[in-house]
## 1
Amino acid sequence: MNIVQCTYCKKPFTSLGGRICPACNEQIDKDFITVRDYIYEHKHSNIDRIAKETEVSKQIIIHLLKEGRLIIDSPDGDGMLTCEMCKKPINTGRLCKDCTGKVSSSMDKNVTANKKPEEKPPEPNLKGTAKIS
Ligand SMILES: [Zn+2]
Ligand SMILES: [Zn+2]
């Protein structure tokens, strides 16, 4: 068993693997339904407005967005969430589509690129070549 600090209320609790205590988990589930219903009716919203009108903490809304449980259909992203690699605004998850593609293709490469790069033989020194004038 593992005692960890809850990401939300900062209280230590016995974790079975998660970073959120049971009380907060319950709260997040409730908040999730509140926010989901709000977004359903107000499609083009942003985190600030949602937090104000639903009284759900921004931290929880961002958490739900990052987990991909919520998607805010915001035209410009409102700077709510940014891709963790290229910092482009995104509506859900942690990476934009481009970077998700890059990450999965670089993971494929890593499997084969584990070998050390072969050392190149030293370049022949051409500086000492005599000039014929
Ligand atoms: Zn907690
Ligand atoms: Zn990106």
## 2
Amino acid sequence: MKIDCKLLMVALTIPLFIGILNFKAQAQVTRKLGVAGDIPVPGNYDKDGRTDIAVWRPSNGTWYVINSYTRQVVIRKLGVNGDVPAPGKYDDDARTDFAVWRPSNGTWYRINSSTGQVVIRKLGVNGDIPAPGIYNFSIKSDFAVWRPSNGTWYILRN
Ligand SMILES: [Ca+2]
Ligand SMILES: [Ca+2]
């Protein structure tokens, strides 16, 4: 009779314990950053290997990043209203660089995180959709656009 009680306790406890583990594994994390109208631009801006939450604000062309390592908010100006944010790892320091593509003149603007230098390149025309990525054997992102009117990709090797 005593053993039966113990078995019953174990039988009841194990599923409860597994339930708690499951609950912890799926725990939700929330952070506040940004206002209505902002565009999310997550990336690893601080090089700690973890994605930093970040937004780009069209109304003032400003980037707001919460560095995952220091938890400090970093604010940078790049871009104007009407630009499309297109962050990527364009230089070779493994940190995400701020970048925008301007539809009105088909021009890319980025800030190299390694030097702080602004790099400007022409690629694309109004109506294109920016689609940067690492398209060649490299660790650096390339500027790229996709043109809906002819279904063509245009890639500027970095
Ligand atoms: Ca990070
Ligand atoms: Ca970089």
## 3
Amino acid sequence: MAIHTVLGELDPADLGPTSMHEHVFSDLRLWAKTGDDGIKWEGPIGPEAQAHLRWNGLHTPDNLLLHDPEVAVAEMEAVKRAGGGTIVDLTVNGMGRRVADLVEVSRRSGVPIAIGCGYYVEEMHPEELASMDVDAIAATMLDELRDGIDGTGVIPALIGEIGTNHPPTEAEWRVVRAAGRAGAESGAAVNIHLSWRGADGLVVTEALIEEGVPADRIILSHLDERLDEGYHDAVAETGVVMEFDTFGSEYFYSTKSRARNPTDVERLTFLARLIEAGHGDRIVIGCDIWSQGNLIRNGGCGYEHLFRRVQPALEWACGADAATVEKIMVETPKRLLDRP
Ligand SMILES: [Zn+2]
């Protein structure tokens, strides 16, 4: 068993408090709304843009690009100062993955970074995926899990985030099943990105279990973007790992559509319910940072938010005891990232 990071194998004892869902580098400008239903920020992106970006998250394409290694190192150094351990970067193929730069950022900041593999939503699938069947797609993931990514020698710790829309498209279903097959064969955990627009966690879980992934190695992302008690309870029943991973993002994507993130207070309230019901051993958390507005340098909460503010709030806002906090921050990430 081993925990693979961009700097090689990490002793599980050194994992520390872990954010299970981040993007150190990513390019999600595809989500930008460049039409007439929003106002673009015309100036430079800095703290002065923060208020605008909080209310118009998707209207400035540059907001959706994380590309600067110098900035990434500074943000990771803040993680270290806040007592953070490891960062899991789930920027997969097609999302602006930059493996060589991650190696550099991890080495310079001293923060271990574990990464995923696979494919995001269909809009970002590489062209060749359209003609590949489930086994052929699974083979691409198994290659990376065994031999590393693109000749860098960097081996992913897990599979995902695997992208799904609501409802998942035919191409996304093929990738979900491929991730399931690759997960079953390799023993790697599988993380699924779910759309806030639907409650697809249950059907996706069913498919992954059918492909042979044990429930406790399935991680469902973004459950805090769909705050629905009945849905959360049904997901908890299945035995999968529930991920609340957008702490620190309190944005209107667009005021015209009224689409917005929940607030941290709402996230903590729903998390408290699950912890109280005894599900503390199947919860992991993160900030899913993917925009400039999220960064400390631009007046956002930064990756450090999870360790500096959310981790203590698990006790004072969610009623978690010290053992449960340790499970959420360290033990469950360790179990999920450690693989044959
Ligand atoms: Zn996601």
